[in-house]
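Known limitations

Files may contain more than one protein. Parsers should not assume a single record per file. Below, a two-record file is shown to illustrate correct handling: read the sequence, read the token line, then continue until end of file.
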Amino acid sequence: MQIGDKMPDLLGLDQNGNPIKAENLKGQKVVLYFYPKDMTSGCTAQACSLRDGYEELRAQGYRVIGVSVDDAKRHLKFIEKNELPFDLIADTEHTLVETFGVWAEKKMYGKTYMGTLRTTFIFNEEGVLERIISPKEIKTANHAEQILNK
């Protein structure tokens, strides 16, 4: 995905199995953030930053949606444990991570594996991509602030 691209028609299914479609997001700015894994320290810090800044994000017209390749059951636990007020898409088939180009080879402790690159995509009210916050730019503990303070 590149700046100026339109949001895909169907983003995926949320933690309750409900479809999240672009047509239902019109009129809202959308923060679509991809993260590697529920219940990990960095991903929890990022989700909690968005939770803590949620009222201000909503006041500025943003709808926050998280995406990882974890399943819906794990998402429900993550939401409950951290009191997250936004939906999480269970991209178990890797459709969205591949569409957005965030499924890539990663290295940790000398091992190479495929995983999600922590990346945030911000769409305007018409569903057009306006901003990308890359993995190197994201500060997990202050992510809401990063979005609000362009």
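...continuing to the second record:
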Amino acid sequence: MQKNQQPTWDFNVINMRISKNQIKFIRSLSQKKVRDAEQLFLAEGEKCVRELLQSFEPYLIASSIPLLGVSALEASPMEIEQMSQLRHPQGVIAAFRMPNPIIAESADELTLALDGIQDPGNLGTIIRTADWFGISNIVCSADTVDCWNPKVVQATMGALARVRVHYTDLYSFIQRSTQSKADDAAGKCGSCPVYGTLLDGKNMYLPNAIPCKNSGIIIMGNEGNGISPAIRNLITHPLFIPSYPADRPTSESLNVAIATAIVLAEFRR
């Protein structure tokens, strides 16, 4: 199927079966180069697909189960399994059109910044967590895993319908944000605070560790290496999540998705 070619089936037609070519095409969307070329991404499971239908245009929906109110191509459980990226397919798979890419110019609200997150499950969980805590924008470095990766989409459980994910030069984005906020006399917190989780940061539960909870940038770093040195230099308020109890050895570090949830919970408290 050629790029941007319109599907030859009618979504209003009920009981139309999926074809072998369509199965092959859906399977190819597991590859980033194909997703980028076709501007399509995959989602699986009835709940996730219904959530995404609120915000994204469907290109193809295939199902081996009845879908109330949704026109879909009929597929057998075996055909769903052939297309699925899951160990245990959930009976529904859909291809959605990607939104036009949005370049985040600066942070004008509490924004989450991700520096080199590599694990799809972590990114998906972070997006879902951001949705829970009312974060509308996540800004990612160019080397962060693709948010349209099927494993990421699945882990978000539909949160991509409400959270915008941007990919850009993270260093330049933070610089622009701090400068624009400093120039904004109406800014409630003055210049844009830049928070980051570091082992030598300030206990985030102490008074004044977080001077402004309704705006700023929260940076979370790579699973193994943490926040990169260049980005670390831009942090104005280093934060530390203390372990408990403090007088005995504990794990060396927290999973980045768990750490993100803990930090966001404190900002929203």
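Parsers that stop after the first record will miss the second one. For reference, the second record is described as follows. Residues 1-14 have pLDDT under 50 and may be disordered.
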